[in-house]
Amino acid sequence: MRQNGEGLEGVEWGNAWDLRDPGQPHTNWFVGDHPAIPRDGLRFLQHGDPLTRSWANGASPTPAEPVSHLCLKWFQHHPEDDPAWGAAKPSSTGRSLSLLAGPGKFALTFRRGDRSLELVLEQAGDFALWSEGLEHSWRVLAASTVLTVRWSPVP
User: Fold this and answer.
1) Which of 16-20, 54-58, 117-121 has the lowest mean pLDDT?
2) What is the pLDDT of residues 94-107, one digit of tens each?
3) How many Å apart are CA 97 and CA 91, to the nearest integer?
4) Cα–Cα distance list, 112 to 9, 11, 37, 42, 98 (Å)
5) Where are the alpha helices (DSSP H) in the chain?
6) Number of structural domains, the chain?
7) CA end-to-end span of the chain, whole Å?
8) What is the CATH number for 41?
9) Domain residues for 44?
C-alpha cells in the first residue's frame, strides 16, 4: 500500500493479512468484537453497539434492527470506467471499509478541510476504513475487484 499525504483523523489503513497476530485465535474477520481487534480503533464493534446488539447470544435481528443500515458493494473496476463515478463523492456517513479483494491498483483520496490523504491499494487485502464526515473520491489505476462495506449506527 502506498500513502501520499499525512494521516487524517478518522482513517485507518493496512493489509488484512498483516493484522493477524499468531498468538491470538482467529476467525479471519478483521472488523467486529474479537481479542485481536484494538478497542480504540474504527474496526472495533462492541457487543451492545447498534450493529451487534441484535446478533448477541445468537438472537436474530428483527426488521427494525440496525442490520438495515449495512450496505455491501462488490465491484470489478476497470481503468476505462467513467472517472466521474469516483469523483466528488458525498461526505461519508457512518463508517466505510474498502478492501482490494484480488490483484489490482485502486486509489482512494480523503479530504478534511485543507488536508488530504491518498491511499493506493495495491495488494490483495489492502484496505482503508474511514469514519463519517470525510470527503472522499476514488480512481481506478488497474483492473481491481473492490469490496466496500458501509454501516451506520442507529440513533
Assistant:
1) 54-58
2) 788 899 999 999 99
3) 15
4) 9, 11, 26, 17, 18
5) none
6) 1
7) 35
8) 2.60.120.10
9) 2-151
C-alpha–C-alpha distance, residues 84 and 116, integer Å: 19
Residue 66 to residue 50: CA distance in whole angstroms: 6
- Sign of the C-alpha dihedral computed for residues 28, 151, 76 and 84 taken in this order: negative
Across the range 77-100, mean pLDDT stands at 88
Q: Average pLDDT of 67-96? A: 83
pTM metric for this prediction: 0.70
Place of cell 499525512: 6
- The 3-state DSSP class for residue 30 equals coil
E strand or H helix that includes residue 116: strand 115-121
Contacts of 44 (CB under 8 A, 6+ apart): 32, 33, 37, 38
The pLDDT-based confidence of 80 (bands split at 50, 70, 90) is: very high
